[in-house]
Amino acid sequence: MAESRRPWRWVQATLAVIVMILAGRYLARQWEGFRTQAIDWQLSPLWLLLSVALVWTAYAILVEGWRRVVLSMQQRLSYREAARICMISNLGRYLPGKVWAIAGAAWLAGRAGVHAGVAVAAALILQALALASGLVMVAALAPGAILGLGGGARTTLVAVAAVALGALLVFVIPGLLIRLRPWLPATLRTLMPVAPAAMLAGFLANLLAWGLYGLAFQALVHGLVPDTVLGWPEATAVFATSYLVGLIAALAPGGLGPREFVFVLLLSPSLGPKLAVALAVASRLLLTVTELGASLPFLAALRRALRDS
Predict the structure, then answer these.
(1) DSSP character for 260?
(2) Which pLDDT does position 4 carry in this prediction?
(3) N or C: which end of the chain has fewer CB within 10 A?
């Protein structure tokens, strides 16, 4: 198993290195502009609160989209349980390897009464939906965002998203799933295909969430530097592209580093390097606050349940 993961780890490490080199070279060329650019900070708490609320709304939509996928696989799962699974397992992204997010989702789903095979498959589908829908959103709104990453990073991102889309099709098309069953682990061989309507609902939920993330990023910018002009398509494309790169760069906990570098690469041409760096840091803080805020109540309840049992 460790040997089979090694090529994938090399891909992740290569993507992270490519992005960091591109960002470093760009900042080196723009150093004078970075040093002299002035930023007019004007904090607006209401806009910042709106940004947090929009992110939490996106979370709520994603939970329901994923829950419908689980229900279509002949399982029972309440919205509260689905929210608990998604919010707690999402914190696994901050551990190196990203596999902890999938393992955590599978373990929590199993505790909620979901079949072990369905729990693992649903956790994988959760990640695949995010990757495939994110690339579709960026390609539709601002394909230049992907082109701006450079050849190696762009190719890796597109290839991984294509694999994610193919994995989703495997779970939808009965013939493909049946043919692959002999090569699947024992816990996955009894899986039933996901209803196309449920998978489509999950995909659309992810698209809507990406759009809300873009609005949240716009609100964040307006709450920090209101004179800065940033359109929704650009805000959504920059957020989605950087998030996807951070998701793929599994060696970086929470995508820390590669995600911020992509922010800088994509925003510097229009906003300047210093403001791009500042907004990359602000966006990281926003996601950290929203993820912790959404998961802490569920973590407290899980701790009590484990202690009582």
Answers:
(1) H
(2) 43
(3) N
Three-class SS state of 98: coil
pLDDT single digits (tens) 232-267:
998 999 898 888 877 776 565 656 677 888 888 888
Three-state SS string across 131-150, please? HHHHHHHHHHHCHHHHHCCC
Does residue 119 lie in a domain region? yes
Q: State how many domains the chain has.
A: 1
Q: Is 219 exposed, middle or buried (0-12, 13-18, 19+ CB in 10 A)?
A: buried
Q: Which of 9-18, 85-94, 126-135, 263-272 has the lowest mean pLDDT?
A: 9-18
Each residue of 53-67: b (16+ CB within 10 Å) or e?
A: ebbbebbbbbbebbb
Check: CB of residue 76 under 8 Å from CB of residue 116. no
Side chain identity at residue 254, one-letter code: G
- Tokens 């922010």 correspond to 263
Which contiguous run of DSSP H or E holds residue 237? Answer: helix 232-248
Summarize pLDDT for 279-304 with one digit per residue, the tens: 988 888 888 889 888 888 888 777 77
Does some domain include residue 96?
Answer: yes
What proportion of the chain, given as a percentage, has pLDDT over 90? 16
Burial of 43 (0-12, 13-18, 19+ CB in 10 A): exposed
Domain that holds residue 51: 44-297
